[in-house]
Structures are given as C-alpha cells and as structure tokens.
Known about the structure:
single chain; 415 residues; mainly alpha
Amino acid sequence: MNLWHFSAPRGLRLLLCALWTASVVALGATQWSYSLPLESHFVEYALVGVCTLYLFVFPRWLDFFGMLALAVSLLAFDHLGRGFPLHFDGCVSMVGVGALLLLGKRAFWDEVPAARCGLTFTICYLGTSLLSPWLLEGLIRLNPTLLDLYLYSFESSLHVQVSYLAAQFMHSSRWIFLPAYLCYLAIGFPLALCFGGQLARLREKAAPLMLPYLLAAPVGLFLFNWIPAIGPRRLFPQLFPYHPFPTAYSRHLVVGPILATGAPPNSIPSLHLTWALLAWWTSRGLHWSIRAVLLFFLLMTALATMGTGEHYLVDLVVALPFSVFLEALCAYDRLPMPNTRRASLILYGGGGLLLWFSLLRYLPSVFWISPFIPWALVALTIGTSFWLERLLPPPGARAQTAVAISEILAVEQPD
C-alpha cells in the first residue's frame, strides 16, 4: 500500500482531524509557544516556510484568507483571552500555525497525498528545530574539550583568514549585514520554498527530496563530536573580527584541545550551508525566479556563516561533500540501486568527509608545508563537489520518463 495514497474510514479521518486541530490550537494558546519566536527566530521563519509550502500546493485566495483568519482568531484569543502581549514575531508565527491547521485538514480529512508529504516534512523539520538546542546542550557534556585550534590553524595556513575578512565585509554596511543575517536565521524558508515548489510540480513524487533535508541534522550532530568546535567569535571574542593573529604567530601555534566554554560545538560541517546547498541543488526543474531566490539564500548564507563568527572557511568546504553524500544517499527515486553513478557519489561524499576530518584532526602540520596545499584542497573539493552533483538527474526525471513511456504505450495500444 502506498504511504501517501491510503484511504482511511470516515470516522478515523474525523478523529485524526479533530486531534490535530486540538493539538495545534492548544499549542498556539500556550505562553511557551507564543514567546518561542522571540527566543528562536529559526522556529519563526520555519513557520513562515509552512505558509509558503502550503500556498505552493494549494494556491487559492480562499486558503490564503482562511490562513489569515485562523491566525487572527488565535491572536485574539492569546491577547484578549490569555493576556499575552502582542509582538511582531508572535503575529508572524501565528500565520504559520494557521497554515499548520489547514495543512492538517488537507492531509487527514481531504486525504491529499501532496498535503501528507508536506505535513510529514513540516512535523519532522519543526521537531528537529525544537529539539536541536537540547541536543546541542548534550554535546557540551559529551565534549569537555574543544578542537577549534585545529580549524583555526588550517585557516591560518591559507595565509588569508577568510572568516575574519568575511565578517569585516558583512559588518561594513547594514545593507549587507541585514539580508545576510536574515538569510542565516531563515534557513528553514529556502527548504520549504524548494520542497513546496517541487510538491506543486511533482506532487507526492517529490517526497524523497525531504530526506536529505531531514537527515542533515542528526548526521551533522554525530559529526560535530569528531571535531567539536564553536567558531572564531566564541574562541577569540576580544579579537574577532578585526584583530586576527598574524600568520607568523599562527604557524607556531600549539595545536591541541582546549577547555569548553559552555557554547555548544556545532561548527564542522556547517549545517546552514548544507541546507542552503541542498535547497539549491534539488530545485532543478523549478521556475527561474524561485531558483534565483534560492541562489541568493545560498550566497548570503555562505557569507553569514562566516560573518557571524559561527564557522571557519573549512566548515563550509566540508559541507560540500557532506551535501553530495546526503543527496546521493537519498536519490533512490532518481537512480535506483544498483547504480554505479549513485554509488560513486555516495563514496565520494563519505570519503571526502573522512579525508578532511582525518587531515584536520591528525595531520594539521601538512597544511603548513606550503599555502598551495590547503588552497588546492579547497579548490578541488569545491569544484569536484559541484561537478559530481550535476551527475544526479534532476528531481522527478525518472518519474517523468515513466509517465512519458506509459503515455506512448497507451497511444500505441489498438482499440
């Protein structure tokens, strides 16, 4: 039985729809959920992404105004009935809660397969966003020491500390800082934009595209333990971003573990860039305007990950084979196994991760032999990752071929 097409009895549909509505309304009426956007803008923009996804799949004015009406009703209850103060972030989030209600109705009552895909992605992504802070706090207890100096040593071996330059450029103008920082906070939006667009184009056949988005966080949390690091801003708060150590000093830096500062180690690989890359790569087949927005998010996210001091350049470089690994691993609909091309991409991504982590952790002195070595590895990783990813067929390519063949056979069948 197809996961997205099963039909439930009327009574069960009514029960599921009622439970979903009661759960979402109860959540939207709590002080915790109303104030959560003030504490975590990632959740706020993820809820904005839910609105985007819903309107892609159901682009009707009635749904749009229904979403707004539900948001206004929840806000009126929270403000007038519960006495919660009105604030912009809470208002924006309530529109997303309204979209959640409508998406649940479409999935449980109307039994629309694309709505079921969208709801599954939304629940998993929001759940990941809410659980991530607690999981990262757990990493602090697992890693009493940090290995930031290994990553800082690599960046210094380039003879150009790229993360410091990126931060200086980002802070040089508010017209650069604001869009870059907004894209950094709203990383859930490009995922919803891409997945919503593909749902509208391919319907439930777009379901496999959600898998690399959702796998990035748990696999990334595992990799954070290999080289636990917190980024240059927290490592050198008095020096970042305008006073990097001279290269001559960094060459003689004693590389080793340092005591944790209390900040969660979430540096390498950069999950923000991983998500932005996956959204860009899996958007093939969408309208050029959507791809332009996703490309803008990719460029701004790359700038902001370093500009905020959360990441070193190598964190972004390692995110490239990591992204290739995740996309190829989940591309079972486009290249079913056994397939040499897909297996090669999985091996490249996994092997690239293993090579980079091994060199950074166990052979940091190799990068100081000559600046050519680290720069060549960076250029080779970037170029190879973008080139190899293009070997994957665009989303829906195999499904569209199957449809075309079935149409040809239908035409050739005799009456």
